[in-house]
Amino acid sequence: MGHQGLKDADAAAIASMLNTASVPIAKLTLADNDLGDAAAEVIAEQLKTNKSITYLSLHKNKIGDRGGKALAQALAEGCPSLTTLFVTGNPLSAEARSAITKAYDQRPAESKAPPGSLNALVIDGK
């Protein structure tokens, strides 16, 4: 679903799909769209209870601090299967990046990618 011109208005459909798909979704690429804070908040709320998604790319969207903090909260409160999160290329402040990093680092080891793997938290705020 990358490069589709998705906007915040599409977030409810995306979030609904995460928990109602007939085949559980393990990998979701939403890179290079126009998703902003509102979309990140809706998606983050669904991630808290989703048990199938292991990989989420939100690379190159318009997610700012509000959305970044929602993603951090989701990481801290749930996302039991999520091991890989890409949020590079978004206008995140140092504070939002730090919140996401801290939430990821405090997750149980089984909720993180194995050491040496290519999966992990990828964040730069640009």
Poorly predicted segments: none
Q: Please tell me how large the radius of gyration is.
A: 13 Å
| Biggest sheet architecture | 4 strands, parallel
Count of strand segments:
4
The oligomeric state of the chains shown is single chain
CATH superfamily: Ribonuclease Inhibitor
- Gross CATH architecture: Alpha-Beta Horseshoe
Mean of pLDDT: 85
Structural class: alpha/beta
Strand order within the widest sheet?
1-2-3-4
Helical segment count: 4
InterPro entries: Leu-rich_rpt (IPR001611), LRR-containing_regulator (IPR052201), LRR_dom_sf (IPR032675)
Keywords: Repeat
Pfam families: LRR_6
Description of the structure:
By secondary structure, the protein is α/β, with parallel strands linked by helices. It has one domain (8-122): Leucine-rich repeat, LRR (right-handed beta-alpha superhelix), CATH 3.80.10. Helix content is 37%, strand content 9%. Strand 2, helix 3 (65-77) and strand 3 (84-86) form a beta-alpha-beta unit. The longest helix is centred in the middle third of the chain and has 13 residues, at 65-77. The mean pLDDT is 85. Keywords: Repeat. Pfam families: LRR_6. InterPro entries: Leu-rich_rpt, LRR-containing_regulator, LRR_dom_sf.
Question: How are the SSEs ordered, and which strands pair?
Answer:
Blueprint: H1 11-20, E1 27-29, H2 37-47, E2 55-57, H3 65-77, E3 84-86, H4 94-105, E4 121-122
Parallel strand pairs: 1-2, 2-3, 3-4
Helix pairs in contact: 1-2, 2-3, 3-4
